[in-house]
Amino acid sequence: MAKKLESEKVGAVLIIGGGIGGIQASLDLAESGYKVYLVEDSPAIGGVMAQLDKTLPTNDCSMCILSPKLVECGRHLNIDLLTYSEVLGVKGEPGNFTVSIKKKARFVDTAKCTGCGVCAQGCPIIMPNEFDEGLGERKAIYTPYLQAVPRTYAIDKREERPCHAACKEACPIHMNVQGYAALIAEGKFKEAYDLIRSTNPLPAVCGRVCYAPCEEACNRSQLDEPIASRALKRFAADQIDIESYEVPQITKNGKRVAIVGSGPGGLAAAHDLALNGYEVTVFEVLPEPGGMLRYGIPAYRLPKDILSRDIGYIEKLGVDIKTNVEIGKEITLEQLRQDYQAVFIASGAPRSLRLDIPGEDSTGVIHAIEFLRRVNNREKVDVGKRVAVIGGGNAAMDAARVARRLRAEVKVIYRRSRSEMPANDEEVRAAEEEGIDIIFLANPVRVITAGGKVSKLECIKMKLGEPDDSGRRRPVPIEGSEFIIDVNTVIPALGQAPDVEFAREAGLKITGRETITVNEATLATNIDGLFAGGDVVTGPAMVIEAIAAGKKAALSIDEYLKGETLTAKSDERALQELNEDEIVALKKRFGLKNRVKSKQLKPETRIKSFKEVEKVYSVAAARKEARRCLASQIEGCFECRECEKRCEADAINHEMQDEYLDINVGSIIMSPGLDEYEPSSLINYGYGKYPDVVTSIQFERMLNASGPFHGELVRPSDKKPPQKIAWIQCVGSRDESNNAGYCSSVCCTYAIKQAIIAKEHAPHKLDTTIFFIDVRTFGKGYEQYYHRAEEEYKVRCVRSRIFSVEQVKNTGNLLLRYAEEDGTLKNEEFDLVVLSVGFQPSAKGVKLAERLNIDLNKYRFCQTGEFSPVATSRPGIFVTGAFQAPKDIPETVIQASAAAANSSALLSSARHTLAVEKEYPAEKDVSGEPPRVGVFICHCGINIGGYVNVPEVKEYAATLPNVVFVDRNLYTCSQDTQEKIKEKIKEYGLNRVVVASCTPRTHEPLFQETIREAGLNRFLFEMANIRDQCSWVHMHEPKKATEKAKGLIRMAVARVALLEPLHKVTLGLSHDALVIGGGVAGMTAALNLAEQGFKTYLVEREKELGGWTRKIHLSLNGESPQGFLKSLIERVEANPRIEVLIDTVVVKTDGFIGNFKTTLASENGQKQRFVEHGVIIVASGAKEYRGSEYLLGQNKNVLTLSDLEEKIIGSPQEITSAKDIAMILCARPPGKNHDYCSRVCCTVAVKNALKIKEINPGANIYILYKDVRTYGFKEELYTKARKEGIIFIRYSNDRLPRAGSIDGKLEVVTFDPILGEELILSPDFLVLATPIVPSEGNEELSKILKVPLTEEGFFHEAHVKLAPVDFASEGIFLCGTAHSPKFIDETIAQAQAAAGRATTILAKQQLEVGGAVCQVNAEKCKACLTCVRVCPYDVPYINEDGVAVIEVAKCRGCGVCAAECPREAIQLLNYKKEQVIVKSQALLTPIG
Amino acid sequence: MPSAEQFEPEIVAFSCHYCAYAAADLAGVMRLQYPTNIKIVKLPCSGTVDILYILKAFEQGADGVFVAGCLKEGCHFIEGNLRAERRVERAKNLLDKIGLGKDRVEMFFMSSAEGGRFSEVAREMTERIRKLGPSPIKGG
Questions:
Q1: Any idea what the CATH number is for the domain that residue B51 is in?
Q2: Is the dihedral of CA A292, A296, A301, A302 positive or negative?
């Protein structure tokens, strides 16, 4: 049964969070034989570390050390990066979980995107850049930062919109109004027009006559006035010469569609169908196309040439418009059905409704539609001097205004009042301006004629009665109120109706309203293949509604003719109004601005002709108006598709949908990281109010060379370099009122770092002051860093909590009020204030924990045990990094490797089951062949091709020596080009390849892989970087850039000819491990390795296991250290794979990674033993210092912390009877080697003090301290101690406490800086927190293993930040207090980490070494020792033959020895002298 | 002698893989423009730069050479950049002795995040060499 369960384990691990913790865990596991899925919520991995400028305490460039890890992670065969993804839930059990993941649509195809950034250049949307913490800007299509991995763009389409684009929803065809507004605002008019065209087939028409429902819905109208979107559309249309506008290539599909009617509906359908490849014929009864647009709307609103041009473009798409054809007469609907596969009826509503009064048929009565048609048809119409227009709709207004232009006096007679008028308000106003008299509440009753012509009109006055079906109040005649007016012409404009006789004849169903019956969702009629829409279906409606119907019909007809089922085309989108809060916020953000009015002809001018009344916006006016659009400024991507047009890789896909996937893994590691504390709520600090109060993470970005200010140290408000900067510590930390009663652990040291870096940035005098409570520089090397900051860099540190920050009126400087330690109140001005914000548990992490059912602690960080630092409450799920507790980068990296080790131990039976190893074809032997070079030159879309003349470069490359083939590609990195390269290698017998494209730093491995797949050695390859280092940096000098590209290719071709195949050597290795030290660290490491299946020798010099922990009795959180230790020893001793060797020391170690040989000695060297092993873990521990300071060893009542602990446990009665106990923290001996922080003592002292209080509540406890360093959640103990009355008295280095003894009675004297006087204490016990010092054996061990020590005598890791458990010598690791003082949980994590790192070697079947490494020519070597001296890794040695030897397995390939060797006896392979020199030679003195 | 305006110097830049070359790439990503006169030869570490490479480049007709490595204290190979600096110093002395002048060769330190710094160095070196005029070795 157990066996079956084992076999069910899944050899894959899910890692959540792509910060440094997630990256490290991924790399460790992928290198240990597991498949890894790395899920990251944002578009790229890197986390907070990618945002940092420099790292402490070495001031390394953060990106420099992170970037290689990012790249490694990005291209690792066994790591699947799932960026822009989130975990939704987990099912299953340890060893076999099923995880459901949502991959958010990034709208960019990761497989196709090359990261060139051309898309972002075209994007008009500028948004605050989160990566720069809001100090910089980015586009809606973006990559979080320049070095991002993967370097794939993503489009930010906001799910939560502060301003919802109501215009788009309100528009019947959902025009992207905010899109074209944004483009117009940017001055991109052609692009705006393109966007309009993509939905609207008649832009110039709609830009003039649309009644713009978008404007009615516009959110801005809730602030001031709506955006003038119609006028903006017209502006865009008027910038374009439609006659020369490009016509797309259309592939005809051979199917034919007939459309009845050439009004807006018919034209829209024709347009869309033609674009889809249909052959469209439009039948129009009148002489010219356009329907009501031409014959109904007067020219002063829509000039006829504008209409003709929009229609002309539709004809250019291949639409055939046949005019003067009446359906039912010239051709029947039945006939159309036979000749065409589908028919769309859009015959409009051309019939006028009658007045039905006496005299209506007299000469001089002309219906509005007829009247307008004749005028628009340029027929002469004599209306006489007086005209009466009957009706209140838009047709009435049009007729009236046309009649006015025919020089008549015009009266409009309308039966209701103004507010019921159906005509558009602007139209009514324009009519009145033009002198048209509107008689309200009147109705004609009789037309009176004289001489056969109209002469008078009798009307009756009306009043409003009850509301009718339309909701308007019904007009009722007032009896006896008749009146007569003189008229020459009466124009009834009561409304229109469709003419459906021809449809009825054909058998179509007709409604009672004389319209065609259709399925509203599809516009299909009752006859197969016949569709109808627009006014003929709805009755008279707006132009844009007819267009919408045409577009809808086109979609349905397309489906119909493809034989698909017709789907509903829903037009309705719910409109959402802004709520009050949103309006207030928007008003505050954008201010009030009325719309920019478009100019109009004066009424007296306009009635003289049919000239267009409204003028187009000027460029300035249009851009100004467009900038009023709120949505375009805050909504993220609005799909203007500029990116799509620019992307030559065809990587953009706006239709992309979220994907959901389930993956199967054996374990899970959570590394969701941290949120910085948001300090706006601490109003007294002025964050968010004063621009020059910034957070520490913002300051990081300000310092960064690729940050918002390009690394120039200036303050945000005026971009001037600051002279005085203040840091305020503990913002959002050590603050119980904000549920942040913990210490964020890192802020003190990062503030010090920032102060140092700021000083380095500013060559002028810069004052830096850090206001702190306690300086908590407890990390390895941090205390020394702090002292250097004060002494060398003159960073001022002031012990004070700041009350408030206020702005000084005239200068904008910031005034800080604070109290000095002695209580003196101070005011001091600074010109920049940095708030050192603390860590909050990541909100995403909290959400994740809830989904995964993981326990959180009271601050909502992940709950872990005191002796299981990376295990969550759910077995099989581990945690690392700042989500477990606030911590710095090395601690995070340690926990990451520890979590990897735990996962690996859980899944070791499934190791190598899912991780893949690639197999390659045999390598071709090219030795002796003359070079045959193939050159592949990349256009990189327009990135190279737009600036470098690639065809010319190609021709040139063909002339270079040894070149037998040259090709150029749009994207050389695309998958199809890889196949092409392989083909060409075979076809032309190529034995060397050059790719001229981007940077080898990211792309060399890809191309090397390709040529290897084609059977060529990877090293027979060279790249010419003609993009990053040529076309991009010489964009304005295309000729010179082309010449440089030629030069770079010439150099690459020359070098590649000299390159030789190199082979990694595979070595066998021992899968056993040697762990030195049998304390908690060594035992934990050994146990993890053994659980993973590796035989481990555990060497302990003492006679029993346990180390220092044997002396620890009191825990921090209630778990028992001794209980833990006992069970650990039992597990170690019981494990068959661990061989415990007590009373044993290491005497000698030879060999290298994978192949170490060690001699061990026991029983005082009497017995020797020889072991072979693949790795070494150093866990040799540390000890408590015991000197003679403060009477230690002289007075029996002076104790160390461990003495005290033993006494509390061993003879508590001594403690319970004590009245006064004093403790001195930092009881260090003098001397520089002790000038470091021992990290644990403050907490241990507080822990013990609390224990004393527990067993002896009456005791007075005095703790004398310099800084209380109870970091992380240990702060709670300090808080508790103060609450329980333990007295803390500070002392400083210049006034150390003194201890004396009078008659055996202790006396301690210390200076209290608050009281300003000396205190004398007479304690029963004096407890000293003496430092933790290195083990005695360290020095010897360091010599045996050839690994370095720090000045203080602890072991020195390979890299403080990113290799905290590795030594520079490969295969050797360290952990526990051998590294530096630390707590048990930290020791356990580090021990597991060391085991995890060691696994990356032990898990390998064989080691691959060599390649581009150094090689000694024994004949030339004179054993001068230069190489031995210069090698940074101590690799070379002189062998018995007196010749230098460089072990292939140890060499890192830096080539320093080769460069320094006086006899040129050493060569760095792949960079041999001639292989380097040939490059400058090819550049400067080209041959051939 | 052509005027400083017309003279286009050829400058070889030996750059380390981890920082300077990465900084040059970043200058590209940031589209920071600099003159075309700089051509980079990538090496694993600035410490790989043999003094011979510098001297050979001048012999072959370079007008200027610079070596660019990681920030001091920040070398990926611990202190290759400091060794390179010393070699550049030696090259300067040699160039001075043979009359080329020590200013034609220079050592620079930069981090991989300093795209701006690389382009600045490229501009600075081009201007400097333009002022110094063509190398007397060239064509001679």
A1: 3.40.50
A2: positive
Contacts of B18 in chain A (CB under 8 A): 64, 68
Task: Quick: pLDDT tens for A1302-1330.
Answer: 988 999 999 999 888 999 999 999 999 99
Whether A1056 and A1004 have beta carbons less than 8 Å apart is answered as no
Provide the number of CB pairs (under 8 Å) joining chain A to chain B: 178
> Do the chains contact at B78 and A1432, CB–CB below 8 Å?
yes
pLDDT at A1339: 92
Give the Cβ contact number of residue A720 at 10 Å: 12
With an 8 Å Cβ cutoff, are B21 and A1036 in contact?
no
Q: Supply the pLDDT for residue A1348.
A: 85
C-alpha span between A338 and A357 (Å, rounded): 44
Assess A1040–B contact: CB distance below 8 Å, yes or no.
yes
pLDDT score, position A710: 84
Q: What is the tally of structural domains in chain B? A: 1
In chain A, residues with a C-beta closer than 8 Å to the C-beta of B111 are 61, 63-64, 705
- Measured CA to CA in angstroms, residue A617 lies from A224, A523, A844 at distances of 20, 38, 48
**CA A534 and chain centroid, separation:** 46
Residues B44, A1455: C-beta atoms closer than 8 Å: yes
A1424 pLDDT band, cuts 50/70/90, is: very high
Question: Cβ distance A183 to A642 under 8 Å?
Answer: yes
- Residue B2 belongs to some domain of the structure: no
pTM, 2 dp: 0.79
B137 domain-assigned: no
The model's confidence at residue A159, banded by pLDDT at 50, 70 and 90, is: low
Decide if A573 touches B, using CB distance below 8 A. Answer: no
Q: Is position B67 within any domain?
A: yes
Residue-level pLDDT at A4: 45
Six token digits for residue A123: 């994007």
The pLDDT confidence band at residue A900, using thresholds 50, 70 and 90, is very high
CA distance A1266 to A1296: 9
Sort out which chain B residues have CB atoms less than 8 A from A1485's CB and list them. Answer: 60-61
- Per-residue pLDDT, averaged over A93-104, amounts to 96
Q: What is the mean pLDDT of residues B35-60?
A: 96
Beta carbons of B41 and A1476 less than 8 Å apart: yes
**Per-residue pLDDT at A578 exceeds 80:** no
Q: Is residue B92 part of a domain?
A: yes
State pLDDT tens for residues A184-206: 998 999 999 999 999 999 999 99
In A1279-1322, which ranges are E strands? 1287-1290, 1298-1302, 1305-1312, 1317-1321
Whether residue A586 contacts residue A578, with contact meaning beta carbons closer than 8 Å, is answered with yes
**Distance between CA A1302 and CA A220 in Å, rounded?**
85
Distance from CA of A17 to the nearest CA of B (A): 23
| Mean pLDDT (chain A, rounded) | 93
Burial of A787 (0-12, 13-18, 19+ CB in 10 A): middle
pLDDT reported for residue A572: 64
The chain B residue lying nearest A1459, using CA atoms, is B50
Range of the domain at B116: 11-132
A1463 touches chain B (CB under 8 A): no
Query: What residues contact residue A737 under an 8 Å CB cut-off, 6+ apart?
Result: none
Is residue A1168 within 8 A of residue A1147, CB to CB? The reply is yes
**B25: closest CA of chain A, how far (Å):** 5
Residue type for A989, please? G
Chain B residues with CB under 8 Å of A1369 CB are none
Name the residue among A67, A1030, A1459 with its Cβ closest to that of B49. Answer: A1459
Q: Are A1455 and B43 an interchain contact pair (Cβ–Cβ within 8 Å)?
A: yes
- Closest chain A C-alpha to B3 CA, distance in angstroms: 19
- Segment A1386-1391 shows an average pLDDT of 98
